[in-house]
Amino acid sequence: MIERHHYFRLIEAYATPEGREDTARRTIAALSSLPGVLAISAGLPADDHAEAAWDLAVTVRFASLEDVEAYRVNADHRRFVDDVLAPRIDVKKIWNFTIAGAAKAD
User: Fold this and answer.
1) How many angstroms separate the CA atoms of 43 and 22, rounded?
2) Domains in the chain, ordered, with CATH?
3) How do beta strands 56-62 and 2-10 pair?
4) Which residue of 37, 38, 92, 100 has the fewest C-beta atoms within 10 A of its own C-beta?
5) Measured on CA atoms in the order 53, 87, 85, 29, is the torsion positive or negative?
6) How far apart are the C-alpha atoms of 77 and 37, rounded to whole Å?
7) How many whole angstroms separate alpha carbon 103 and alpha carbon 80?
8) Residues 21, 35, 30, CA angle at the centre, nearest 5°?
9) SS3 readout for the chain
10) Whole-angstrom Cα distance, residue 73 to residue 30?
11) pLDDT by 10s per residue, the chain, length 106
């Protein structure tokens, strides 16, 4: 299992509560049904420290790195990124992590 973590600092026009929420909503709507995507979530800053660093965190889950690569070059994904996300983003960081397991909290 692979999780692809995206962190976005939005340009000033979208770095508002409304702009963050709209970008999160549009991202989930556009990407959730793409081939290979098992799950997607979007997070907004929950505290001042998070808000000082990032405006939006998006996590997409895949079965394999091969699915990640197919997603990255998918025409619908590219169109959404190029036409909607890129014009809103000032800084982005993206990493892939293998999910080794999950522990239950007591």
Assistant:
1) 12
2) 2-98 (3.30.70.100)
3) antiparallel
4) 100
5) positive
6) 11
7) 34
8) 20
9) CEEEEEEEEECHHHCCHHHHHHHHHHHHHHHCCCCCCCEEEEECCCCHHHHHHCCEEEEEEECCHHHHHHHHHCHHHHHHHHHHHHHHEEEEEEEEEECCCCCCCC
10) 15
11) 999 999 999 999 999 999 999 999 999 999 999 999 999 999 999 999 998 999 999 999 999 999 999 999 999 999 999 999 999 999 999 999 999 875 555 5
Name residue, tokens 């394999």: 64
Q: Which tokens hold the place of 18?
A: 């409304």
Residue 24 neighbours by CB under 8 Å, 6+ apart? 42, 43, 44, 56, 58
